[in-house]
Design goal:
CATH architecture: Alpha-Beta Barrel
Radius of gyration: 16 Å
Strand content: 15-25%
Number of domains: 1
Oligomer: single chain
Helix content: 25-40%
Number of strands: 6
Shape: globular
CATH superfamily: EAL domain
Structural class: alpha/beta
Largest sheet: 6 strands, parallel
Distance between the termini: 30 Å
Number of helices: 9
Order of helices and strands: HEHHHEHHEHEHEHE
């Protein structure tokens, strides 16, 4: 997959690309080859999505992978967060640029963790928006990035 994506043509388009990875993949020889094919200016277009369990299972490897990725201008995202996750971890201290949080009905009553992220410059992507009412709620709460069956955020 990384070999196919490393085409100069693919990254000539001014879009953000998200790759779901694990920490070991970022440190792999395949990723190094992928990295070497990308011009420096396009690396900022790539967001590396990591799962919380993978990040927490080996914090020292995550720290090394994060430093490696950020030194090369990739952005890092936590892919599977919930509002409960945000109560337990310090996203900014982890060096994450983006956090992807699943929409749930109980999220509406637990927005305090999101309020802390805005001044820290962390982008929050609300995922799993399935109904127009959820989209309206997200907009009214100030979310500017969303993903799901409804569009328009």
């Amino acid at each position: 997959m990384l070999a196919a994506l490393s085409s100069q043509r693919e990254f000539a388009k001014p879009h953000t690309y998200a790759l779901h990875m694990n920490v070991a993949s970022i440190l792999s020889s395949e990723f190094l080859r992928f990295d070497q094919t990308l011009p420096l200016k396009t690396r900022g277009q790539v967001v590396l999505n990591l799962n919380l369990a993978d990040v927490m299972s080996d914090p020292s490897s995550f720290t090394f992978a994060r430093s490696f990725a950020q030194a090369r201008q990739y952005r890092l995202a936590l892919a599977d967060a919930t509002w409960q996750t945000l109560e337990l971890i310090d996203v900014a201290a982890m060096g994450l640029d983006v956090i992807r949080v699943a929409f749930s009905p109980d999220l509406q009553a637990n927005l305090s963790a999101f309020r802390r992220l805005a001044p820290q410059g962390v982008i929050v992507v609300l995922t799993g928006l399935q109904r127009p009412s959820e989209l309206r709620w997200a907009k009214n709460q100030g979310f500017t990035y969303g993903q799901g069956a409804v569009f328009g955020l």
